[in-house]
Amino acid sequence: MKTNRQKELERKYATRYHKIKFFERQKVRRRLRSVTKELARVEGKKKGDSDSVEEQDALLERKRKLEEDLAYIDYYPKGVKYYSLFGRSQGVDDPKTEQLRQEMRVRALRSCEDAKVAAQNTAAMAKEEEMKKPASDEGSARRASEADEDEAEDESEEPDEEDEEADDEIDTEDEEDDEEEDEDDDKKDARVQEEDGFFLKARTK
């Protein structure tokens, strides 16, 4: 947990050394671009040339140091006095300053490596979650589909109570209609028999 004093120092040094870090970063990047171009030129030469191999190794070493210089600038410990990467304009520093610069360099490189590891872990976790997500969604969809099929089978095998009641009502109405039709037919038959008897008596007379 940072104290107010530490936070104040971080703000103070961030403002004080912002311009110095900016110009040093620009200088290192220009040198890095130049070395990268030289490497591409050397790698394009015929392989097996001993001079080209030695030149390539030297350029790779320069590139590595320049990349460390960038890490020194970008991951320099916060809340600590910044020791310029290139020292004094004369190129001479006292031993104590040089020792402190090397200590800060080690801390900065360690912070850079930690940041890379953290980024890799985050990317790996995100990839794992992305790989798990489709499988989970597919499994959920399959389970939902199976549940729908089971429900449909249950509905087809077990008739609904409302449907049974409706069928009973229809059967009752059909029976009542049949009874009414039978009664009408009996009445018609009776009338026909009466008429036949009347005509038969009339003929006899």
Key features of this structure:
mainly alpha; 5 helices; 205 residues
Structure description:
The protein is mostly helical. Helix content is 83%, strand content 0%. The chain contains 5 helices and no strands. α2 (18-43) runs antiparallel to α3 (50-74) and α3 packs across α4. The protein is elongated and about 145 Å long. The termini are far apart. Mean pLDDT is 76; it is low at 156-160.
What topology does this entry show?
Blueprint: H1 4-16, H2 18-43, H3 50-74, H4 95-157, H5 161-204
Helix pairs in contact: 2-3, 3-4
Q: How are helices and strands ordered from N to C?
A: HHHHH
Number of helices, where a helix is a run of at least 4 consecutive DSSP H or I residues:
5
Pick out the low-confidence regions: 156-160
Average pLDDT reading: 76
Strand composition percent: under 5%
- Terminal Cα span: 133 Å
What's the alpha carbon Rg, rounded to whole Å? 49 Å
Helical percentage: over 70%
Q: Strand count, sense and closure of the main sheet? A: none
What would you call the shape? elongated
The count of β-strands is: 0
Coarse structural class: mainly alpha
Give the gist of this structure.
The protein has helices at about 5-15, 20-45, 50-75, 95-155, 160-205.
